[in-house]
Write a structure and sequence with these properties.
Blueprint: E1 9-12, E2 27-30, E3 33-36, H1 38-41, E4 44-45, E5 50-52, H2 55-61, H3 73-84, E6 86-88, H4 91-105, H5 111-114, H6 121-134, E7 138-139, E8 145-148, H7 154-162, H8 166-177, H9 183-192, E9 199-202, E10 213-216, H10 222-232, H11 234-241
Antiparallel strand pairs: 1-3, 2-3, 4-8, 5-6, 7-8, 9-10
Helix pairs in contact: 4-6, 4-9, 7-8
């Protein structure tokens, strides 16, 4: 039986995270320094290896490359991953790369063209932080969901941390999954997620329903992914929700 490394995960990021992340078990935020206790943080933690590509490599080699009639952006992303991805067991490195990915995808310059007036720069900061943690979630090629942390349940986790209403949590979830409701943003997302070894997939249907998102490897068996999602979430969502701070 393969065992995973449950050593404490630490990383120092370029910007400080909201200290309210400390409301969730296993997370300690001290300014720019983040510490995770895997045994307390994860609901399911079966693998401690992830595929990554250095963000600078993605910036230099893929972000400005356009798809053609012969090469769709998804095919370009798959080939780029095959050429440059490597396996790491350093979860702190995964978090650092994820923060670079989401600092790019959820940058403030997009607000003017987003077409969602309720979304603010503060919401984008929330997205950057929550999506960084979500990078440690993992789906295997056979579709099995091997790693699940509280940020899999995006509206619940962000509601607990940022004191969001259910409506605002779902709005944030829509922006995270929706690729900014724009083809250009979707293409940006496909390219950027190569740094995390795959493509963003989620289990929600037409509306956010806490079915979660993960950067899955190209070729992952989505039928098993959907089947596992259907049976895994309710108890864990209730645990996340239980940490919400309510007014006295």
């Amino acid at each position: 039986m393969t065992t995973v490394d449950t050593t404490t995960i630490t990383v120092e990021l370029p910007e400080a995270f909201d200290p309210r992340w400390n409301r969730l078990p296993g997370i300690t935020v001290d300014g720019k320094k983040i510490t995770l206790d895997p045994e307390k943080y994860f609901f399911r933690f079966e693998t401690d290896s992830w595929l990554v590509i250095e963000w600078q490599t993605v910036q230099d080699g893929l972000l400005d490359v356009d798809e053609t009639e012969e090469a769709a952006v998804e095919q370009m992303a798959l080939e780029f991953i095959k050429a440059y991805a490597r396996s790491t067991r350093d979860a702190g490195e995964v978090l650092a790369i994820a923060h670079q990915v989401y600092s790019y995808l959820f940058r403030d310059e997009h607000l003017a063209s987003l077409g969602l007036p309720r979304v603010t720069a503060e919401h984008l900061r929330m997205l950057r932080e929550a999506a960084t943690f979500m990078a440690l979630n993992k789906v295997e090629l056979d579709g099995h969901i091997s790693n699940v942390g509280p940020c899999w349940f995006f509206p619940s986790a962000t509601g607990v941390v940022f004191d969001l209403s259910e409506e605002d949590g779902q709005m944030l979830d829509e922006v995270y999954h929706g690729g900014w409701f724009n083809e250009h943003r979707r293409i940006e997302g496909i390219k950027a997620h190569t740094a995390l070894g795959g493509r963003l997939v989620h289990g929600c249907q037409s509306v956010p329903d806490q079915s979660g998102g993960v950067v899955a490897p190209y070729g992952a068996f989505m039928a098993r992914f959907r089947e596992e999602l259907a049976g895994m979430k309710q108890e864990w969502i209730e645990q996340v929700d239980s940490y919400r701070v309510t007014a006295a």
